[in-house]
Amino acid sequence: MPKSDILLRKLCDLEHSLRDFSIEALPAREAVVLQNSFFKFRKQIEIQILEIADEGTGMAAIHSTKKKDSHHLVSQDLILISNGLQLPLDNIIGCTYMLRESNLSREQTHYVEAIHAASDLLMDINDELYDSIVPQGLKGGRKTKSKYQRINKAMTVPHNYQTALSTHISGKKQKLDLNPVLEDCLGQVDLLEELIGLFKVNAIEFIGEVKLHLQNSDFKGIAFASHKIKNGLRMLHITELLTIAEQMDIQARTDRDIKHLRFLYGCFVTEYPIVEKQLEGAILKLKRN
Amino acid sequence: MDTGKRQLLLAEDDQLLASLLNYRLKKGGYDVHLVHDGKEVKEYLSSTLPDIIVSDIMMPYFSGIELIDYVRNELGLKIPIIIISSAGNEENVLSAFELGANDFISKPVSPSELLVRVGRELSKT
């Protein structure tokens, strides 16, 4: 029989004996012997069960163990949370990829891109958290992006995403000021209206043209189309669409990231009807005046 | 028909800018012929000799650079040529000057500035 079982049985017997024990029936000498025996017994129990040799160092050991344990538990909890977040985030990103390939309205496309960008960012934060807890070499099967990849991405894609998204999501639209163009038109509202009509044709052509270029991964075509539309946008002071077109032009000539170009194109397509309405409103206002 | 006005060939494929410049140049007293690509430029020059050419650098079929080369070297004409160029297109502007362009104006084009430049070039002839 193991020692611990013997001890446990003896403790049970002792507990039974104590039920019949009465301090009043005990002589003084026997009471002292019992007290000493009890202290020895308690000390022995502490040494054997709690592994405490000395009361002073014992308490310090308890604190140190508790501290280590709590730190270890927090880390374990964070790793569990981080691993728990990874799968749903992967699923969200995966779903956005599938949604992109389906037939979506302009508005829906924008929302999908916003979800994608946000979940991608969350994935980076989650990777950062995981890397800060788990030392290199102890990561098991989980792969996180390198710090370089994250920094590189933060400097290029998310920044651009945020620029385009922030203008859209915040809803803080810049008002179109057609007065400088009207001055160029020598105050002729009819001419300005004609120019806006031409711009609309150009914008629709641009949207159709770039869609084809994106399907064919024709970066040269995208750069040329973006370059051309920029002039009209600059002329009419349509800064939001101009920012997107400039980014498309640069992206098509430098990084050539088709996903990012698709995203920018989606932003342009989503943003255009809003600008169109603003232009119509601005012209109406000028006509009234 | 001779209207007594100076003839100006405007080659610009961006219809938005072309319309504005066409209007302003006509208002400025020029007889403007507007074309939208290099092919139309060649066709026009085969039958007519304008007093001045204003051309965009980036055009379909026949770029502004090729246009200067054609006018100066193939046709042997010394008529003033003003180039319209986008910002950041300095290399093309230098090539244009090397081939014989007289002046350039960058986008976004100010119609008033273009009128001044056209007038200045024509006053030299």
Order of helices and strands of chain B: EHEHEHEHEH
Task: Indicate the overall shape of chain B.
Answer: globular
Total number of β-strand segments of chain A?
0
Main beta sheet of chain A, described? none
Oligomeric composition of the shown chains: heterodimer
- What percent of residues of chain B adopt helix (DSSP H or I)? 40-55%
Question: Number of helical segments of chain B?
Answer: 5
Stretches with pLDDT under 50, minimum 5 residues of chain A? 150-160, 166-172
Spatial sequence of strands, sheet with the most strands of chain B:
2-1-3-4-5
Order of helices and strands of chain A: HHHHHHHHHHH
| Most extensive protein-chain contact, per-chain counts | A-B, 20 and 17 residues
Q: What Rg of chain A is obtained from the alpha carbons, in whole angstroms?
A: 37 Å
Classification by helices and strands of chain A: mainly alpha
Shape of chain A: rod-shaped
Largest sheet of chain B: 5 strands, parallel
Radius of gyration of chain B: 13 Å
Alpha-carbon distance between the two ends of chain A? 104 Å
Secondary structure class of chain B reads: alpha/beta
* Percent helix of chain A: over 70%
- Low-pLDDT segments, ≥5 res of chain B: none
Task: Determine the strand fraction of chain B and express it as a percent band.
Answer: 15-25%
Write the layout of secondary structure elements.
The complex is a heterodimer of chains A (289) and B (125).
Chain A: H1 3-19, H2 28-50, H3 55-101, H4 106-133, H5 147-155, H6 157-170, H7 179-184, H8 189-215, H9 219-235, H10 239-253, H11 258-288
Helix pairs in contact in A: 3-4, 4-11, 6-11, 8-9, 8-11, 9-10, 10-11
Chain B: E1 6-11, H1 15-27, E2 30-35, H2 38-47, E3 52-56, H3 64-74, E4 81-85, H4 90-99, E5 103-106, H5 111-124
Parallel strand pairs in B: 1-2, 1-3, 3-4, 4-5
Helix pairs in contact in B: 1-5, 3-4
